[in-house]
Amino acid sequence: MLVHIPNVLTAEQVAHCRRILEAAAWVDGRVTAGEQSGKAKNNLQVPENSPQASELGDIILQALGLNPMFTSAALPLRVFPPLFNRYDVGMTFHAHVDNAIRFVPGANMRIRTDVSSTLFLTDPEDYDGGELVIEDTYGTQRVKLPAGHMVLYPATSLHKVEPVTRGSRWSSFFWTQSMIKEDSRRRLLFEMDQSIMKIRADLPDSHPGVLGMTAAYHNLLRQWVEM
Ligand SMILES: O=C(O)CCC(=O)C(=O)O
Ligand SMILES: [Fe+2]
Questions:
Q1: Is 145 a pocket residue for ligand 1 (Cβ < 6 Å)?
Q2: d(CA 148, CA 136)
Q3: ipTM of predicted assembly, 2 dp
Q4: Which positions in this protein are listed as binding 2-oxoglutarate (predicted)?
Q5: Between 51-65 and 11-22, two packed helices, what is the crossing angle to 10 degrees?
Q6: Which residues are annotated as a binding site?
Q7: Domain spans, the chain
Q8: Superfamily of domain 3-178
Q9: Tens of pLDDT along 27-39?
Q10: CA 191 to centroid of ligand 1, rounded, Å
């Protein structure tokens, strides 16, 4: 399941991120890649421990904490500190699957990567190519979103970034360890939660249908949750 989360960052926050990133020391993106994905990868990244990555990462983590759709779709246990990448003309990331486990820099901790995210920091009209292409259970999806918007997809999916042919594509990317490991269960809980929200827009919370569906959601979550 792919989830498009609009307006994770405001236009001002995107502009701030871009200003800070202008001054960052971009390095070869292979620094964080595994063996297979390293061969597939040709882009630039801001170093994990740089002051720019941690300042901007905190802004993104705070925005995610306030975003009900992210919480509902990812059911996050731990979020990897956001990283930042860039594809100039000719750069690309061929098909790969993200590493299953990642060390969190500076935290002496590992996370299991259940959900992958790309938060776009360049508007689509400012570059050509650079689509994120994801092999989903429902077929191949090509994703290119406005700056400030984000896509979530299962870290189990094969994905690639098409070569950029004009301009430069900047984004933040990171992984989430979910309280629900399995994609199909996470999707079912997300769909159920979204439906409950729609019902609650029309019916009082005390309505027996709302009460029953909310109870079923929480009881299902309780059965499946891993913490
Ligand atoms: O740039 C992107 O949108 C995705 C990056 C990616 O797939 C990765 O770093 O593993
Ligand atoms: Fe990836």
A1: no
A2: 23
A3: 0.99
A4: 169
A5: 170
A6: 96, 98, 159, 169
A7: 3-178, 183-224
A8: q2cbj1_9rhob like domain (2.60.120.620)
A9: 999 887 778 888 8
A10: 26
